Amino acid sequence: MDKETVVTAIKDFILPELKEMGIRLDAVEKRLSDINGHLVDQSQRIEETNKRIDETNKRIDETNKRIDETNKRIDGTNKRIDNLRAELTDKIVEVRTELTDKIVEVRTELTDKIDNLRAELTDKIVEVRTELTDKIDEVRTELTGRIDTTNNRIDQLTFQVGKIAQEMERIKREESVTSDILTRLRTLEQKTANL
User: Fold this and answer.
1) Average pLDDT over residues 30-51
2) Res 187: pLDDT
3) Phi then psi for 100, rounded to 5 degrees?
4) What is the reported pLDDT for 88?
């Protein structure tokens, strides 16, 4: 085989391959160029996104500062609330103590007044009871006196009725004797008249 035949054979085999590879390389270069364009475009978008992220981070930082300030204000407000709560608790304890003392004082006053009223009422009841007992004793004594007087009068009336009954008996006896005497006298008169 000579050199030319080898070269021709290589050309026949390799050239079409090389041509095809060249076409492929052109396509790859075109795709690489398109990819580079996309990458440049993506890079610009990434830069814009980074700018937006930076702006967002700035806003987040500002918001965090505001949140920190708000937290400081909330802490201050919480401290004031705690102070007010402590003051109110102290006031409530103070008022409760005052009210308890006042209630005890009023209870003591009312208990004393009730005890005084009870003592006054007890004394009044004893006084009224004594008066009523005295009055009842007076009325009893008066009624007993009247009853005794009435009993005496009844006794006297009974005695007088008894005397009258005796007198009536005596009169009846005397009447009987008188009648007997009259009858005897009449009889004597008749005898005397017959003589």
Assistant:
1) 86
2) 76
3) -60, -45
4) 92
Q: What are the tokens at 146?
A: 């009247």
Which token pair is 162? 């008894």
CA distances from 166 to 28, 67, 72, 171 (A): 183, 138, 133, 8
Residue written as token pair 């996104």? 49
Cβ neighbours of residue 122 closer than 8 Å, sequence gap 6 or more: none
CA 58 to chain CA mean position, Å: 59
Q: What's residue 192's pLDDT?
A: 67
**Cα distances (Å, whole numbers) of residue 86 to 77, 82, 89, 91, 92:** 14, 6, 5, 9, 10
Q: Report the amino acid identity of residue 98.
A: E
